[in-house]
Inverse folding.
């Protein structure tokens, strides 16, 4: 059976996919769907996060080997996870059949102020320097990543944070990995679909547009969703993947 691998972003874990995994699995009956945690997140929160994306690829490949998944696999990933997908498909194209990248931003195609929109600098700096309660953290993340007012997910996110706390050191290492990663000028030799949000408050949609232009790959843009596309428009994501597969 073929496999879809799902990868989340900075300090987020497989549990943050919420109900999307089951919905995606239902739409992909010929595949097994596996949401992996990156080191330092989720069930791996006690591990040290690598400070570079290539080391995250090494971890993912080792995890597939441990599960005896031979591949090639298809990858659906967002944010930092999308960088891991690109590095994986570039270095090991024989193991990656296709990739779907959600609201990603990659050097050298986009400037820093598009990869992290300036209106978030103050909030993120305050949280990083002075911290705050778990509810303040999660409510702030929800506010800048979702346009759907999904307050119902807050209890789940708080429970995940309590169960699998991400250390500040691991968060910094993940930030460093994302900041340091530079994508290849030429696209990975695998089919690529970009999905983006026109009203993403965290990462400018211009990043996906620039990547689609340089790599000459497919791009679909949702008009109202936020950065967390699977949360705000999960059905749309699933539909776009289905159309692209045909």
């Amino acid at each position: 059976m073929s496999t879809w691998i799902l990868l989340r972003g900075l300090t987020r874990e497989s549990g943050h996919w919420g109900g999307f995994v089951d919905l995606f699995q239902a739409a992909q009956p010929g595949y097994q769907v596996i949401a992996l945690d990156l080191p330092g997140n989720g069930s791996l929160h006690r591990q040290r996060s690598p400070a570079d994306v290539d080391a995250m690829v090494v971890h993912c490949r080792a995890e597939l080997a441990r599960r005896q998944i031979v591949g090639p696999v298809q990858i659906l990933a967002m944010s930092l996870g999308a960088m891991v997908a690109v590095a994986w498909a570039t270095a090991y194209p024989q193991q990656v059949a296709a990739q779907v990248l959600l609201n990603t931003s990659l050097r050298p195609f986009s400037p820093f102020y598009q990869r992290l929109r300036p209106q978030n600098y103050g909030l993120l700096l305050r949280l990083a320097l002075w911290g705050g309660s778990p509810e303040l953290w999660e409510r702030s993340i929800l506010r800048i990543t979702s346009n759907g007012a999904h307050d119902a997910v807050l209890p789940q996110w708080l429970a995940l944070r309590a169960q699998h706390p991400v250390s500040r050191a691991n968060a910094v290492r993940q930030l460093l990995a994302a900041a340091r990663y530079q994508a290849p000028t030429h696209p990975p030799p695998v089919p690529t679909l970009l999905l983006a949000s026109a009203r993403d408050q965290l990462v400018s949609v211009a990043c996906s547009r620039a990547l689609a232009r340089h790599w000459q790959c497919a791009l679909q843009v949702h008009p109202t969703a936020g950065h967390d596309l699977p949360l705000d428009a999960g059905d749309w994501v699933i539909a776009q993947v289905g159309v692209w597969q045909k």
User: Anything to note?
Assistant: The mean pLDDT is 91.
